[in-house]
């Protein structure tokens, strides 16, 4: 398995196509949630992904402060269905937090999490900062990781 972090301009056409395809497969098709997946934030983001034999198996988007929120953020977090349950999600999120902390010197990270994953994100130190609300008919919660809790597993 090979891990990559690239800004938008470093992605090859094929990498970008594959990342968008996998995001659409999970967030639009699998979750039966029609929405504009390509939201204009990719060009200002970093893209962290794992690939094995040319197949993207895990992905998340790293958003600097000011792109989605005043704080830095992680989003579009996914592990391809066939690869779930193997610890990739934990490694993916840890790598995303690490990148924000060590490469971008960020001390606060905000996420918009699906509520059923609240405990998963709490295991990294994220704390709920909102009540549960519906986003695209899926229960979500806003969560924040900051300061001394910004240590990866």
Automatic annotation (TrEMBL):
- Which ranges does the record mark as transmembrane? none
N-acetyltransferase domain segment(s): 6-148
Write down the Pfam families for this protein, in alphabetical order. Answer: Acetyltransf_10
Q: InterPro entries, alphabetically?
A: Acyl_CoA_acyltransferase (IPR016181), GNAT_dom (IPR000182)
SUPFAM superfamilies, alphabetically? Acyl-CoA N-acyltransferases (Nat)
Task: Tell me the protein's name.
Answer: GNAT family N-acetyltransferase
Query: What is the organism of origin for this protein?
Result: Niallia hominis
């Amino acid at each position: 398995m090979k891990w990559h972090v690239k800004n938008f301009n470093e992605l090859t056409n094929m990498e970008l196509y594959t990342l968008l395809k996998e995001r659409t497969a999970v967030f639009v098709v699998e979750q039966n949630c029609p929405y504009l997946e390509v939201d204009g934030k990719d060009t200002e983001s970093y893209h962290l992904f794992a690939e094995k034999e040319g197949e993207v198996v895990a992905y998340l988007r790293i958003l600097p402060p000011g792109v989605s929120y005043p704080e830095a953020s992680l989003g579009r977090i996914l592990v391809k269905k066939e690869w779930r349950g193997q610890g990739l999600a934990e490694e993916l999120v840890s790598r995303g937090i690490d990148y924000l902390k060590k490469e971008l010197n960020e001390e606060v990270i905000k996420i918009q999490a699906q509520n059923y994953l609240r405990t998963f994100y709490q295991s990294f130190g994220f704390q709920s900062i909102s009540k549960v609300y519906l986003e695209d008919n899926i229960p979500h919660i806003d969560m924040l990781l900051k300061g001394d809790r910004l240590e990866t597993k």
